[in-house]
Amino acid sequence: MTRHHSALPGRARRAVAALAFGLAGTLALAGSAAPATTAPPGSGVWYEIFVRSWADTNGDGVGDLDGVTAKLDYLQALGVSGIWLMPINPSPSYHGYDVTDYYGINSQYGTLDDFRHLLGEAHKRHIKVIIDLVINHTSDQHPWFKAARDPASPYHDWYSWAGPHTDLSATSAVGGQAWRSSGSAHYLGDFTGAMPDLNYDTPAVRREMLKIGQYWLSQGVDGFRLDAAQHIYYDFKAQDGDLAVLKKNLAWWSQFRHGMESIRPDVYIVGEVTQDSPDKLAPWFGPLSAVFDFPLASQLIDSARNELAGHLGAQLAQTDAAYRKASGRSGVDAPFLSNHDQDRVMSQLDGNPQHMRMAAAMLLTLPGRPFVYYGEELGMRGRKPDPDLRGPMRWNRAPDVPGEATWKASTPHDDAAVSVQSQQADPDSLLHHYTMLIHWRREVSALRDGAIHPQLLDNPHLAAWQLDDASSHVLVVHNLSAQPQDVPLGNTRFRTVRLHSKPGITLQHGRLQMPAYATAILQ
Q1: Which residues constitute the signal peptide according to the record (predicted)?
Q2: 351-399 pLDDT, tens per residue?
Q3: How far apart are the C-alpha atoms of 197 and 190, rounded to whole Å?
C-alpha cells in the first residue's frame, strides 16, 4: 500500500489530522495535556510502538508517524518517559526488519518532516524517542546487496560469502540454515534469505554504521534499540558461549557507543541480547546502556501465573549483583514482560486479568527502565504467528472508527472492552491500573533508581523487595494470590503504607494486612 497525502502543506495537514481524530478516544487520563515548562520527575518507563498498528491519520488503514504524534497526549497521561519506535525505515516487509534505506522513512508512515514534527512534539512533553536500528543485516533488496552479488563490486565485501571449504549445512545461531544461495554463490543470512548479514570485519561497513547512527541523532532521536545486537559476530550455533565471539561483539558496540556519544553524550542505547542468565547479560553493560532482561521477563510471568514468588527473589538478587558489578551502579536494568516477538502477556496468562495486574505491578515496581509493549496496558491478546502479536491498537470500542489501523484484523479475543475508549471510562480498568503504577514511579525515586534488596517472607504467595536511593527508602510487597494475607513484618523500619493498589491494606503493630492481588509500598 502507498501512503497518499492530501494537497495540504505538511503543517496544515497535521493540524487537520489531529483535529479530526487525535482527541477521539485519547482524552487525558489525568490533568491537562499542556506541556510543562520544566521537566517533571520522569517514570523511567519506555513504551514500544509498532507504527503500522498504532493510529492511522490518512485513512489508508496503515498507522503513520502523524498518528504517533496525535496520540502523544495519551502517552503523556499514561506517564511514560519515552517511546521506542519499531523500524521506520523503508522496507519490503510489513514489519520493517529488513531495511532498504537507512537514511529514509517508510513512505507508508510519512516523511522525514513528519518524523521531525513527532520528535519536536514528543520533546515538548518530555517524552524521549528511540528508534529501532537494524544493522546486523540488510534487506536483500538493499542497493548494497544488489551490487554485492558482483564479486568485482566494492560492496561485495560488505557481506559474508562462503568460500570453497565452507560448511554450507551449518546451523545459524537462531536455528535453521545459515548459508543462503544466490546463483552459484552462498551468503550468510542468520535469520532468513531476505536478510543477508553485513560483514563487520570490513572497515567501510563500520564507518557507514557510525555515520547512520550519527545521522539519526542529528535529526533529534534520543537513542536506539539495537536489533539482534549479539548476532553481529554470533552467527552459528557452534559459536554458542564462544568468548572470542563475545569479545568481538562487545568491541564493535563499544566503538559504536563512543561514536554516538561524540554527537550526544546522554544517548540511550538498549540492546536485544537473548541470553538466559544475568551473568551472560552483564558484559554488555558498558558497550550498551542496557540490555533487555529476558530471563526476568519469564520469571515475572511465571510468578504471576502460579501466584507464587518462586525463584523471583533469588533472580533479582543475582541480577542486581551482576549488573552493579558491570556498570558500577543500580537501576540500570531494562525489564519487560513481552515484546513484538513473544506471545502477548495476557495470552501467556490465559486471559486472567488479576494475574495480568500482578505481572504489571511487579514489573513497574522494579528499579531500572521498564519497557511496556503497546496495548499491554489494555490487556490486548495475541499468539504467534508474529503478525498476530503486532495487531492494531484499539482506540475505540468500534474497530471501524476513523483513526483505527486496519491493515490486519484485531485479535478475536479483543472485544470492545479492550479499547482505550472503554477503559478510560472505567476507573477500575487495567489501563488505570497501569497509569497508577507508572505514576508511582514519578513519586518515589527509589522505584526507578534504588538499589534492590529482595526480602524473604515466610509466605510463598508474597513477593517483596526493599529499594533504597539517596532520597527514599521503601518496602514493596505484592500479594500474588487470590486469598488475603496477614504478613508479620516484625520490628521493621517501615511503619506507614505510602501507596496501595487496593483499599483495605493496613499496617499495624508490625503486621501488614493485604487483600487478594494487591500491592503495597511501605515507608
Answers
A1: 1-30
A2: 999 999 999 999 999 999 999 999 999 999 999 999 999 999 999 998 8
A3: 7
**Average pLDDT score over residue span 195-199:** 98
Catalytic positions, written as ranges: 227, 272
In angstroms, rounded to a whole number, what is the distance separating the alpha carbons of residues 30 and 138? 43
Confidence check: pLDDT of 2 > 90: no
For 71-124, the three-class secondary structure string (H helix, E strand, C coil) is CHHHHHHHCCCEEEECCCCCCCCCCCCCCCCCCCCCCCCCCHHHHHHHHHHHHH
Give all strands of the β-sheet with 82-85 in edge-to-edge order. Answer: 290-291, 268-271, 223-226, 128-133, 82-85, 46-49, 371-373
pLDDT tens digit sequence for 461-499: 999 999 999 989 999 999 999 999 999 997 788 999 999
CB atoms within 10 A of CB 469: 18
Report the length, in residues, of the chain.
523
**Which residues are paired to 474 by β-bridges?**
467
Cα–Cα distance, 6 to 17 (Å, whole number): 11
pLDDT band with cut points at 50, 70 and 90 for residue 38:
low
305: DSSP letter = H
Residues 221 and 210: their CA atoms lie apart, in Å, by: 15
Give yes or no for a contact between 190 and 136, defined as CB atoms under 8 angstroms apart: yes
Long-range contacts of 445-448 (CB under 8 A, 24+ apart): 445/41, 445/469, 445/470, 445/471, 445/472, 446/367, 446/471, 446/472, 446/473, 446/474, 447/364, 447/365, 447/366, 447/367, 447/474, 447/476, 447/521, 448/42, 448/43, 448/44, 448/331, 448/367, 448/368, 448/369
- Backbone angles phi and psi of 138, in degrees to 5: -115, 180
